[in-house]
Amino acid sequence: MAKATVTPKHLTPLGVDDFPEAVLARRGARFWHLLKTAVWELWRNRLASVGAVMLLILLLVALLAPLIARYDPVKQNYREMLQGPSAAHYFGTDKFGRDIWSRVVWGAQRSVIISVLAVMVGLLCGVPLGTISGFYGGKLDAVLMRVVDAWLSMPGILLYLIAAAIIQAYKLSLFWNTVGLIIALGVAQTPSMARLLRGSVLAEREREYVEASHVIGEGHLYIAFCQILPNCLSPVIIQGTISLGIEMLVLAALSFLGLGAPPPTPDWGADLNLAREHMETLPYLAIFPGLAISFAVLAFNLFGDGLRDMLDPRLADS
Amino acid sequence: MLKYTFYRVLQLVPVWLLLSIFVFTIVHALPGDAIDALVPADAASNPATRAALEKELGLDKPIYVQYAKWLGKIVLHGDFGRSITTRRTISVEIFQRLPATLYLAVTALCVSMLIAIPLGTIAAVKRRTFVDYTATATALTGVSVPEFWLAILFVLFFALYLGWLPASEYYSPFDHLGLSLKHLVLPATALGVRLAAITTRLTRSAMLDEIRKEYVDTARALGLPERRVIYKYTLRNALIPTVTVAGLQFARLLGGTVVIESIFSWPGVGLVLYEALMGRDYPMVQAAVLIIGTAFVLMNLLVDLTYRWLNPRIRLG
Known about the structure:
Distance between the termini of chain A: 10 Å
Strand content of chain A: under 5%
Low-confidence stretches of chain A: none
Mean pLDDT of chain A: 82
Structural class of chain A: mainly alpha
Largest sheet of chain A: none
Low-confidence stretches of chain B: none
Order of helices and strands of chain B: HHHHHHHHHHHHHH
Strand content of chain B: under 5%
Largest sheet of chain B: none
Helix content of chain A: 55-70%
Radius of gyration of chain A: 23 Å
Order of helices and strands of chain A: HHHHHHHHHHHHH
Shape of chain B: globular
Mean pLDDT of chain B: 82
Number of strands of chain A: 0
Oligomer: heterodimer
Shape of chain A: globular
Number of helices of chain A: 13
Helix content of chain B: over 70%
Largest interface: A-B, 42 and 52 residues
Distance between the termini of chain B: 9 Å
Radius of gyration of chain B: 24 Å
């Protein structure tokens, strides 16, 4: 796409050959440069901008939930059951008289917190595993990758189902229930993250700056985590963003099946489940929570796609 | 290639064993005993009765002995035990319902592929036109929308509002083809939309990669008609990675049946698993997860071998 404007020189995407090896060795200098370019490219890539704006809206709603929600999402109010959307209740009320707008807004906070923390757990487990596996190679790598392969060949959704059923069966408080869910969702992300990172680290390991660092006498862990890893982060960031969307869908599916939070916690999937009873008479009960889920996942997907176009032009779509 | 196949099939055994160990231990991690589920509470709290029952059910033995007995029964006799809630043999229950799930899943797979691959190809060939933008937008939406919400919307719109299509009940295609297909449309579509969306995006990006390659220019320079260049040569090569990932996604489709079957009351294995989970019918849960998991592992193996066979670089090299 030819543009009349010219990219400022200091923000032109730099090729691999523009950097002398010594500079690369400095704490993943390429990564920081890519970040600066990325922000500028974001402005140019329209779809990604839309995704970013949607994400911002989502995060704001989640953050400001106590201020935006107009009623208590949990308190039942039988005088105002099953009302349609109105000025008093933006999205109407459900069969317990709870304001759906408030439930959607608090549900956003819950979904965002769980998804973000789950992906962080996944990164915390998967990144060190993948880095060490890729860096040391040899037998350790072979064994770890066999384990990861076996793990990946097991059906994901079934593991989620069972994990959620176990967490629920112990009848924990809401807090521990949520923690259990976060850990389960996060740990399930570990094998794909590990594999992704291992590939990048294996390739990066052969670069000259790594050899130079070895020669100087830097410690192995230092080289692996402070020099190689920052240069391998692009696919991980992309995968992380897409994973955020996936985690949200999984969480919604689990809650829909009754395996998420105990009622009456406001949760998008759980609200969809409640809406099933009233499908004939009150369709709006099902529309709003589902719309919220779609909005959130679409935001993550759009932004993730845009990130991929920016951070790794080799993978770019168009 | 043969050596690799042999090695991979051999690898099935430890993976399957791992799966069975995982299923067994996880279900036993659930609180509550089989005894609590079988007998009323006052009998369960009586220590003498409890000890006698434990001995009878074999629950007093250490867990690895219980596991070995359970596994032995499955591998040697195909006996998965009895369901706690329905008291019927589990293998009968599950294998009776398997055809319904396969019917649903395979139809969803076929229809998705039939729609997605042409759509992705056209979107790639006519890049940055209206067709491309529409296809990409639809695919992106399809990936972002939760399947169960889509299913609910379908029911709301097509079944309740328009009344065109039914939203429950299952008819075997061998009994009554017309009715069977009519009842199949909504669940299969709800199940297949996500797969179709992912495949469209994949086909499009694979085709875009292939079209840039040199052999395409050579073919055009040789004077071959554009249509033949695209469909006969480029598409075939682009399909290799596409079919691989689509095959893996089909395995996930099996998991999606749990939700879709519960919405449409489709009598399949997914619904059995869901009801067993809700009803705390642990032997049934164990068996259903093991069976679905085995199908998943086999499917992955098949896809991997197919990819290696299709890709001439790997097959011949």
